[in-house]
Amino acid sequence: MDLDFLTEEVKKLARQTGEFLKKERLSFDRSRVEQKAAHDYVSYVDKASEKRIVERLHELLPEAGFIAEEGSGSLEEQEYCWVVDPLDGTSNYIHDCTPYCVSIALRNREEILLGVVYECGREELFWAHKNSRAYLNGKEICVSDQSVLDQSFIELGFPYKAEDYRSFALGLIQDLYGHVGGLRLMGAAAAEICYIAAGRFEARVEAFIGPWDIAAAYIILKQAGGKMTGFDGNPDCLVAKEVFASNGKVHEELLKVIQRRKNLLKNE
Questions:
Q1: What local confidence, expressed as pLDDT, does residue 29 receive?
Q2: For the sheet containing 65-68, what is the strand order?
């Protein structure tokens, strides 16, 4: 498998899809937005974007299966599988906010082989494959050297399952607010993990997250020197519901904070 060739083709596709998203945003019709669950939305643009991506990826690698957020395929027995989020940050997109992005990854049964994330608002294309470094618009990127939690810039994700996550989220804010360099809530997991890969943030914490949200960003972060685990510290996080990404240097200290907060909730 020629990962250089496939990555180049996926980069082109991600950019093209991003341009489609931006063009559609100029005449976006909020009346055509559907609600999948409480405060969890999908638009006609998500679906059109996914259709375009799936068609092109099938041309590139006909033998590969798909798992995509809006329903194209599922994890099956194929040797290869594309993992696609056609529009990560749908709520941001609906409200004409950034970031929002296109996220495409290819995996086999053991690992992620390549990942491409195109953040539309800043026109930033992140990519990596298993034999490469991580790149942003053609320039190599790496995680920050920050190892002091008190000076770390931390991203939080608030999933739509508010009732299941509220106690932990509020507790984590209590643990971190005023004890880290800053907290931010941005609303697009794939882009935000790439921001860690680029050295802009030190960590990100969120639960109830899908594989399409993190698969591409996972390999970009890994090739940039970062780390991703479940809240339990398990590195097999691509099927986890609780995902913690970092520059690797604050990982263990922040993981202790996360686990301590979870233990407190268990004992309440």
A1: 75
A2: 65-68, 81-88, 101-107, 112-119, 124-129, 134-136, 139-141
